[in-house]
Design a protein that fits this description.
With 236 residues, the chain is an all-alpha fold. The chain has helices at residues 2-5, 11-25, 28-58, 64-95, 100-103, 122-137, 139-158, 164-180, 182-197, 223-235. The radius of gyration is 24 Å and the shape is elongated. 71% of the residues lie in helices and 0% in strands.
């Protein structure tokens, strides 16, 4: 693959120069913004998106089984990203594709110090794995997550540190891990989340007080009215 990347007629290289060429024409502040967003910002945004989805899910009225399975699906998102990165370790070592700026002149490299191999992109793998796993858990939040993953891939090429196929490979790897192992993850994580839900000190992580349908913290319609009748009888 490294040999193919060295060819100037390769569409992968042509697209690399087209996207990275935008950095040469952009103002300095925009390049610095893309550098931060592509290196750290989108990863942080993905984590915050998962937390936001979790906060929404735990406040929604649900049975113990529904709440446990929903939170288990969200817990799988960061786990899927971490597992996908581990899978990428032998892939990088097998392919041994150099960074594009080592084989091609004239690239605008926005981040220095990248000495490891290029295929596949860890950033693209992480964000897409989390986005797809989030989509399995919640369609609305998942679409936003997948959008962030696509933006991450664009930023990595814009920054001159990855070929487009590095990014596509990361998307494929992250998606495969998140989807193929999702049933197994749900089977293993759901009982754990049920146990957490039943815990006196950690149950809030699965369901908020107002979401505990049928529990002692549930708000039962008419309960206040019945209590008022009993209070009047005692007063009489």
């Amino acid at each position: 693959m490294a040999g193919l990347a060295a060819s100037g007629s390769n569409p992968d290289v042509d697209l690399l120069y087209d996207i990275n060429g935008l950095a040469k024409d952009a103002p300095h502040w925009l390049d610095r913004t893309v550098e931060f967003v592509g290196e750290y910002g989108l990863l942080l945004a993905m984590v915050l998106l998962v937390v936001w989805c979790w906060w929404t899910v735990r406040r929604r009225p649900a049975s113990a089984d529904e709440a446990a399975s929903s939170v288990a699906a969200l817990v799988w998102a960061p786990l899927a990203a971490g597992l996908a990165v581990l899978v990428n370790v032998p892939i990088r070592g097998f392919v041994e594709r150099p960074r594009p700026f080592l084989d091609h002149q004239g690239l605008e490299v926005l981040v220095s110090g990248k000495t490891d191999y290029s295929f596949v992109s860890d950033h693209a793998t992480i964000t897409m794995a989390m986005g797809v796993a989030l989509f399995v858990a919640n369609r609305k939040f998942g679409l936003v997550g997948i959008g962030l993953g696509l933006l991450e891939g664009f930023c990595r090429v814009y920054m001159g540190v990855h070929y487009p196929t590095d990014v596509v490979g990361g998307f494929a790897l992250g998606t495969a891990v998140a989807l193929l192992l999702s049933p197994v993850a749900s089977m293993l994580l759901t009982p754990v989340m049920k146990a957490v839900d039943g815990s006196a000190w950690a149950g809030w992580a699965v369901r908020g007080r107002s979401a505990r349908v049928g529990g002692r913290d549930a708000v039962v319609p008419g309960a206040r009215v019945e209590a008022s009748v009993e209070e009047r009888d005692l007063a009489a």
